[in-house]
Design brief:
mainly alpha; 12 helices; MetI-like fold; globular; 2 domains
Length: 289
């Protein structure tokens, strides 16, 4: 009798879990499908829009790409340029910094580690005013790195992404036996050769994970890009779509949603193509053998 009651309770508990999971998935997915549906809706308003429109059209996408008052292509190129360059430097500096913290002993190492952990406690939004003032001051002496420059935005992205990524990669490198390093050094290899030819191939899954997460965060960023960039020729796609909605009294939501869908394509494709690396890399960085 007690066994049957236990089975019934377990089945009921599992049923409730699945129902909650399904409800959360529906809650997360419906807005996405609504945006996609609206982008194919001939009406320019959200009023009266349905999840499945009565008629489909691609005019919103044609107007988005063919409208001379929009710079959607330029915005996309700006986003890809900033994100790809940022990813390159984030991966390079993260891996070399993590290698140094994992393998070398130097004065102030504990302080650096403590500083990195403290930085992870505070949300980045608290630093917005400081970042703006700092970039404004730097721009007075080095205009190429100041406000309204892609170089300045890239520097902020790279600096902001270092902390948590360095900790993950360091944790992964710590799990690699130091005997590999010592054997290579005895054979005459330099520290750079050890890193490039031994450590880097071993941590390849983590490197891919850092690169993917860095691309998603920089490509989809709105707050920092909107803070530092101005002008249609400089802004990224997320900021550009927002500015388009602010510059018009009669917002054409069909064009806005079409731009949102096209802007999301690179991230969606990248995520589904590499989700196994993201999950595996995060788990590898979180577990130390």
């Amino acid at each position: 009798m007690e066994t049957n009651m236990y089975i019934v309770k377990k089945q009921s508990f599992n049923t409730i879990k699945y129902l909650i999971a399904v409800a959360l998935v529906i809650f997360a997915v419906i807005p996405f499908f609504w945006v996609v549906s609206t982008s194919f809706n001939p009406a320019s308003s959200l009023l009266g829009a349905h999840l499945i429109p009565s008629s489909f059209t691609v005019n919103n996408y044609r107007n988005l790409l063919g409208n001379t008052s929009l710079f959607f292509g330029k915005w996309m190129l700006n986003s890809l340029k900033v994100s790809l360059i940022s990813v390159f430097f984030i991966v390079l500096l993260t891996c070399t910094s993590a290698y140094a913290l994992s393998r070398f002993r130097f004065a102030g190492k504990k302080g650096v580690m403590m500083g990195i952990m403290i930085l992870n406690i505070f949300p980045g939004i608290l630093a917005m005013l400081a970042i703006f003032i700092m970039m404004q001051q730097i721009g007075n002496y080095f205009p190429v790195v100041g406000l309204n420059t892609h170089t300045g935005l890239i520097c902020v992205y790279v600096a902001g992404s270092m902390s948590i990524n360095v900790l993950m990669v360091k944790s992964y490198i710590d799990s690699i036996s130091k005997e590999l390093d010592e054997s290579a050094l005895i054979e005459g290899a330099t520290y750079w050769q050890v890193f490039w030819k031994i450590i880097l191939p071993v941590i390849k899954p983590m490197v891919i994970t850092v690169a993917i997460l860095a691309f998603m965060s920089t490509y989809g960023d709105f707050i920092i890009a909107n803070l530092l960039l101005k002008g249609n020729d400089k802004v990224t796609v997320m900021v550009g779509i927002y500015l388009f909605t602010q510059q018009r009294f009669d917002i054409n939501w069909g064009i806005v949603t079409a731009g949102t869908v096209m802007a999301a394509i690179p991230v969606v494709v990248l995520f589904f193509a590499s989700q196994k690396y993201i999950i595996g890399g995060v788990m590898m960085g979180a577990i130390k053998e």
